[in-house]
Amino acid sequence: MESVMRAAAAILLALAVAVPASANIVRDGSFELNDGTWELSEGWFLGDAGRGAHSGVNSLSTGCFGPEFSCFATQVLPTTIGQRYDLTFWLYADGVIGPGGFPIFQFDNGIQVMFGDALATAIYNFPTTNTSTDITTGGPSTQIIVRNLMATSASTILQLSGYHDPSGIFFDDVSVELAASQIPEPGTLSLIGMALGCLGLCRRRRARML
User: Fold this and answer.
1) What are the Cα distances from residue 172, in Å, to 88, 89, 119?
2) Per-residue pLDDT averaged across 175-193, rounded?
């Protein structure tokens, strides 16, 4: 019986060691540092003192004219081949919504996000949430989530591109983490904990017998 418990504990211990931790692999995803980790083409802007920012004071915006995606913001991410990742970011588009809930100003816009060679998402004419009559006031951002993006190399280029004619569209709090589908459920973690406990119990019993 003791040998069976040891074997089961050893297997689950190996699984526990193999469980990867989930952490954001995007550097300066909130754009507060502005330390050069993002490579920006002409037409991208950092700042705007809270306009389009979900947290902090900075956001990343583009005022490139469309409809082609000709302005890019890129970062090379450390990834694991065959691993799946979840992408999240917050998005805001310039415009004004009137008291009746109808847009007074709504401009053509579009964003495209590439994860390596794969298109993660493309959104066109994202609606504004600005209820102020002043377009520079900004408004609440909306969270966009794209799940289960497959990494095909040890480094993956994350590319943000967009256009907004004639104003701006804003990104903030960009995050790429291990896909939720690949993180063990709490029940699995409990089994691992039980296995570790059994392993410790077996060792104590063996020590008493010696």
Assistant:
1) 10, 6, 19
2) 70
Tokens of 6: 């040891």
Look at strands 108-115 and 44-47 and give their pairing: unpaired
Place of tokens 């089961």: 8
Q: How many CA atoms lie within 13 A of 34 on its CB side?
A: 10
Tens-place pLDDT, residues 18-74: 445 579 999 999 999 988 899 999 888 887 656 889 998 899 998 888 778 888 999
SS (H, E, C) the chain: CHHHHHHHHHHHHHHHHHCCCCCCCCCCCCCCCCCCCCEECCCEEEECCCCCCCCCCCEEEECCCCCCCCCEEEEEEECCCCCEEEEEEEEEECEEECCCCCEEEECEEEEEEEECCEEEEEEECCCCCCCCCCHHHCCCCEEEEEEEEECCCCEEEEEEEEEEECCCEEEEEEEEEECHHHCCCHHHHHHHHHHHHHHHHHHHHHHHHC
pLDDT in the model for residue 152: 97
Q: Do 67 and 139 touch, CB atoms closer than 8 A?
A: no
By percentage, how much of the chain surpasses pLDDT 90?
46
Residue with tokens 């540092």: 33
Is residue 71 within 8 Å of 165, Cβ to Cβ? no
Rounded distance between C-alpha atoms, residue 157 and residue 77, angstroms: 6
Cis peptide before 103 (omega within 30 of 0): no
Preceding peptide of 67 cis, ω within 30°: yes
How far apart CA 57 and CA 174 sit, in angstroms, is 14
